[in-house]
Records
---
Amino acid sequence: MRLSGKLFLLFAFILGSMAARAQYILPENFNSVKAADTAKENSSEDEGEILIKVKPGASDGIFKNSDDVSYTLRVDNLYKVTQDGKLTCYVTTDMGDKVFENTLNVHMTKKSSDNFKFKIDCKQDYGFFKVSFIFHLSSYDDTVKRVFGVNASKINPPLHKPADFDIFWKRTRDSLAKIAPQYKVTEEHALDVNNKRVYLVEMHSWGDKVVRGWLTIPITKNKKPLPVKYRLPGYIVALEPSLDDDDFVEFNFNVRGGGNSKSAIDTHGEYNLYNIENRDEYVYRAVYMDCVRGLDFLYAHAGLGIDTSKIMVDGSSQGGGLAIALAAMDRRIKVATVQVPLYADFRTAYDITALNPKSQTPVGMIVNYVRTHPKFNKEKLFDVWDYYDPLNFAPDVKCPVLMAIGLLDEFCPPRCSLAMYNKLTNKRNEWWSSPEKTHEVDELYYTKQFLWFQDIFRLD
């Protein structure tokens, strides 16, 4: 079920959103630079700016039907001179295939405003599309980029789940179980603020490596066990103690190679490339097991005031993919919230990312590795990554999932996130779209997230 932001307009006056830019390639003729006119540049009449507000026909940028796709642009000419020129709407699929182009004439007197509307024929009944609004005016050249979706529930790529996928991960978990966790919990008194106790947590995980996290426990009068927010980290992100919630135990866990678990592995600065040519030794095999071991810790320490029947796993980017994999492997997770999940539908993400040879995203690093290692081709890569793709874990997730995406996200293409979401089966799953965000979501989503898992926990 897709979310509607209308239920939360009450909160909008305290929450802001920032416009974000996407970077994708336009045809060469749209990238031309206006020739400089020195005399004009020195004229005081040419001082000013153009303000552009882009409004999709669907507030979240996701249209139910291809016939409904439209955009309205409000343009304010703050220059002291009339602006004449062209405004072009150019649309491609997320794989770069052109589907629509239309150009309007622009004539705006000084200090005036106008509205321009485009009805878009995307020629397909579902998918995600890139739209560019290209301005060539007397004193102003610019391109505003957006992404929209159509009938996203129809995005349903085939699974490439290896025949021994379940056996591989069962064998992996069985190996983890043989490693004594040797938990160590140390209260960090210097960090105890806001009526909360903060603990440094250490444990032995896959390969007998020590990984760490931060446990924050509110001091309550009723001594009732509290539900848990189990947070998993983004790509090489260091999670620090959380001190912002009085109603939940918060466990911010750093998998090996990041934060206070950095010393557990040395990937020589190429984290997601570490042993990438070997399915059994690939870095994410150990990382996924770190996440399981962190969950083991929570269950082993209910005496600290942890309600182990109400554990929510949360993650953004890499953490979102980890959350889906963990929820699939372990029924002890009762709720999952994921934002802009990295690596979802990895095969498609690879193909989309490969369109930009200069991509510096985590998937872009893998694309470049394959490009520069001819003996390790794309097929051999997928032979490894099919064991780690969150898409292949998604059908086994039985708990409710809330997912949020940014439509301008190049780290995690929206189509890939929705492909993963559509493989989930719980009827209480929901998703949220932030149409002007890149690798993040708008603040209003977090209000929804809080209310959502409060409601889920209350219903269970």
Note: The domain at 21-154 is CATH 2.60.40.10 (Immunoglobulin-like).
---
Amino acid sequence: MNIEGFEYRDVRVADDVTLHTAIAGSGPAFVLLHGFPQTHLMWRHVAPALAGDYTVICPDLRGYGASSKPIDGYDKRTMAQDIVTLAAALGHERFALAGHDRGAHVAFRAGLDHPDRVTHLAILDVLPTPEMWDVLRGVDAAVAFHLYLMAQPAGLPEQLIAGAPDAFFGYFLDAWGTAPFAPDVRGAYLEASRNAIPSIVADYRATATIDLEHDRADRAAGRTFQMPVAVVQQDWGFPAAELWHPWAPDLTHQTVTCGHFMAEAAPELITEVLRTLRRK
């Protein structure tokens, strides 16, 4: 499935990686990164609304959708470099960046590593990685069982998920939303995820290993985001904004009730969040 009215290009960002990318609009660039278990299609409502004022760039992340799926390179530093290279290849040295779920982790790293490139940063429904692992303890961690499964060494997680991929990925599509996905959209997400099991697991495994090391080092060094940051997330049952403030001095934090897949459940709200952020 495609986003209606968008041009599609496969853009090379590394020797062995091209990103399947939807592009439309003109003006300053706004890059939108998808989450799990999804593709760039999750922006199908928000992206056209933004394209009247911005050049909107929606890639499938490395390892997802129709983008390349190399064996390695799923640390968020490498994936963030993919996005910087993608924007530059399309003529944009500086850009606003929004990420949901897995894409939010990539956006987080891009904002820290490339403050000269990322002008505005929006994070949808994640916590910073060190804080995420710190708060997911005891029975509260049951909701995030997939994080622990895919953190295991290569082999077992991939085998288990491959045994019933639609049941595994479909669980999250059904459990995390506030309304069912249309059959064609749900089918597109399941097919894309079914065909990307090793790379999806590698992405998650990195979050429990090298990504955590990078983020802990930045936290110890006192590094913060130099650009305006907007965080939108569900009520996680604790004051999440307090966990974001040490990372983002210029922070706008909002709690919503529309579920995890907020760009699809409440596209008008998310579009306005992004427009408001970009005006800062």
Note: The first helix runs from residue 46 to 50.
---
Amino acid sequence: MGRSGDGVDQGAFLEYLQEHWPSGGALTIQEFRAITDGWENEIYSFRMIDHGKGVCEDLILRIYPGHDGVVKSRWEFDIMGLLRRTGFSVPAVHLLEPTGAFLPKPFMIMEKIDGPTLRDMLLDDLNCHLDYSGKLLDIFCQLLVDLHRWDWQAHRAKLASSIPKNQALAFQQELEKWSRVADHGFEPAFDWLSIQYSHMDWEPPCLTHGDFHPANIIMSWNDTPFVIDWGGSRFQDFRFDLAWTMLLMSTYGGKGLRDMILGRYQAISGKHVPNMECFEAAAALRRLISVYLSVTRGAEQLGMRPDAVTMMQSDLPHLERVYRVFQDRTATNLPVIEDFFAEMGFNRDSL
């Protein structure tokens, strides 16, 4: 048994399974293949055959690159396990190996959900019916509202270290962290956000996903939605999550989706959501800085896959739409981003 995909040593991986899987011993793996299509984790699917019990199971191997892989893998494993035990629809997580003893990077083994992503179903719905506003979008927004309503208070003792005591201070510290890693040129954005958020009325912290979009929702054979990719989840004002979702959906799927999602979220949650423009500006800046630093310094420093840069470079039209959102919400220009587009040979006027 050799290597596959980006260099996973299947022999070492099988050795790990034989030592750590509950039934242990007489195991083999088949159909091992890479299925990664995002910027961050390396993801593989495989079939594990337990010859002792005469059963097989389809599983996912999720590998964590970057210097924060150990912390991120432990957090994702723990939060998914807790969500699963409390009835939130996530795949089951089975094993975590953060040490690098069997593979060079930390990894997690989890249940594989068979079915299309909600993104695939929305695209089919759009192509067939020219209607992005029906049942599937309701499912999407209902899941996001349900997440933000998840009762973390019942697990306060376990989660205490992850809950911000002062959200205004936590956000200011986040901006300071961004400013330390970003090159000069982003100061106007940091200044604008600091001023706006100094007057913000904060919502109580809740669990946010961090990258909630339709490709991170898998619909099982019985139409049950399962939410994946929890590595960026954290406790904060729910509007950071909602704004990120609105930004991705509108810049990839069309401007109209911004108002559709906000309207559905408000209708389902039964409350008006104020100050979204400020949170959209923060989401747009997060995206701009992430792509800018990944391309100029290397994706691995930000905990992303090495080939993420190539994916980002081919996605510059999306980044230009993100920049326009930032400009619209803040009335602020960032010459460092405009120079970045020029250096990449991207003609903004072509859009």
Note: The chain has two domains: 3-111, 118-350.
---
Amino acid sequence: MRSSQAESLLMRILIGGACLVIIVAGMQAMANVLNIIFLAWLLAYAILPLPNWMMRNRVPEAPAVLATLLIVIFGGIALAVFMSYSIVGLTQRLPAYETNLAGTYTTIIDYLAARDIDLAQVRPLEGLTPSRVIGYARMILGQIGNLLGNTLLLVLLVAILLFEFLGEDLKRSQYRGGEKPLISILQDASRDVQAYVAVTSATGAVQAVINIVLYLALGVDFAVTWGILFFFMNFIPVIGGFVAVVPPVALGFLESGAVTAVAVLVLFTINNLLWDNVLKPRFMEKTLDIPFLLIILSLIFWSWVLGSVGTILAVPLTMVVRNLYYRDITGPAKDT
């Protein structure tokens, strides 16, 4: 009897593992489509507090929903146009940045050569030439440009999801027992994700505005672009802020020298530490309730499955998967 139970358990594990492999392979194959859908889901949750706030302040439901949808559509299109303009401007300035970088690179090489240090012998740095660095920059800008090419679809999906989420919230009291539709089940599993996204987006927006002011004061090019970049990178725990500060620090160095680069880095770090360690915990009722190791593993896994966009989606997707696990495998849904 015990042998039969063990074989049954082993078979369930093997079948579950095989299904998981198929699902992950399918997600990798559909990464371009899934990235748009998941980003729309994340942005919808980020914007959802706005119509709820309007309705709490006695704005009728229909005008609140309509105003939110108009803000999403026109604001999303305006943001995409601005980012496209910024990418074109950055692309046009890359040759000038490459010239400045080449001069700095030559100075460093000469300085080290005078001290009998050959940078070409250091394997991790031997391929880090100005042309390759600019090549990586062009590749990243191209990927962002491709993502912006789907802006209209993304905006429409955000508007549709907002409409569905609001309608589902209003109908929630009508459901009994196991009669909930799929979207209601997913909303239940995403309940703590909504709180996380709302707090992260609100605090990230304020931090982004402060960063923009700092960049403008220090004369960094494309200051608003780097503020928008920070807003999205803010959803990546641990490493998001470090990634967001690299472009303004690099441009500050190439345009104005080391003093400006250090000033950008120091002021950004102070602003980031103040919000992440002092202010943000006061707004968030509870922590992510996800171990640090799981956060790192989720970043690695989702970036492998969905690409670079997966790092932004890693924590919310992991929270949803965890909640669905508690709901469907271990019994009742985990309290949020």
Note: Residues 61-113 form the longest helix (53 residues).
